[in-house]
Amino acid sequence: MCSLFGIIDYKHNLPAFMRRSILHILSRECEVRGTDATGIAYVSNDGLHVYKRPVKASKFKFYIPFESRVVIGHTRMTTKGNQQINYNNHPFFGKTKSGRFALAHNGVLYNDEILRKTMQLPNTSIETDSYIAVQLLEHYGEISFDSIAKMSETVSGSFCFSILTDKNEVYLVKGSNPLAIYDCDGYYVYASTSDILDKTLKKMRIKKKEKVEIKSGEILKISADGTIERGSFNNDDYDYPYYPYRGKYFDYGFDDDENELDALIMYAGYFGIDESDIMILIDLGYDAMEIEELMYDPVMLKEIVSECREMMACELMG
């Protein structure tokens, strides 16, 4: 569970300090979805920049140049790729014949290693599963509705993507994960949930807002002047034989219970969840789909497991 966030000041009405204030508060509100790392990307007079650090947003110190009116950001909860190695954090740089871009991802992709082998993509020191989206876009050679749709249909897992090009265009891609966008009469703000946006705007005493709709399977292209174009992709889940586990976002297709359990434990490992915790939930009667739901609410999962351990200890003592 991570969070995307950003701002597009399309009317150029916001003073620089106001843009920075909104971004600082917005990023801190996103801590609820991830505190392992924080990063931003923006375009200035000398090109596209990415700045990221393995710290939570409230400890993340950043400066946005006066001319940078479009910024995308990310707060991370690590699932794959050590956040202390900074190149594993979001956003990620990419480059195509149409120019440079930065990409951030909220969710978990589980077919990154398979795609890298089957599509003969370059090996990389970046461990994060999200980076496969960058490699696919580089492989397709451009940033466009077609290439983003193709990438979204090729990766498997849960996702929303934000992509910033060096032309100050933002693409927002909605898969199964949440995403909320508001038009505040001159600038757009977005985050992974409307609750994050509402708290941010309340703290900034910004009352005028209008929701911008985005549905699962949709791609929004927002230009620097505020123009919105829409594209789409097939959001049906794809079945990869090497990884049969597909849970809420995937189609169950196990040959036997043992394979189901192995795949579930492997998937849980991306979230830092121990095998012993999974076994406790199974003993409690949770099925695979219910356990995957809990993976996206790790606090509740730990509470349930902790209560169960306490009951087991009491039974042993009694």
Question: Can you describe what's shown?
Answer:
The protein has 318 residues and is of the alpha+beta class. It contains nine helices and 13 strands. It has helices at 16-29, 112-118, 131-140, 145-154, 194-203, 257-269, 275-283, 288-295, 298-317; strands at residues 3-8, 37-44, 47-53, 70-76, 92-96, 99-109, 157-165, 170-174, 180-183, 188-191, 210-212, 218-222, 228-232. Helix 1 (16-29) packs across helix 5 and helix 3 (131-140) crosses helix 4 (145-154).
Strand content: 15-25%
In CATH, the architecture of the largest domain is 4-Layer Sandwich
Number of helices: 9
Number of strands: 13
CATH evolutionary superfamily of the largest domain: Aminohydrolase, N-terminal nucleophile (Ntn) domain
**In which range does the helix fraction lie?**
25-40%
What is the helix/strand order?
EHEEEEEHHHEEEEHEEEHHHH
Query: What spatial order of strands do you see in the largest sheet?
Result: 3-2-4-1-10-9-11
Quick one: overall form?
A: globular
Structural classification: alpha+beta
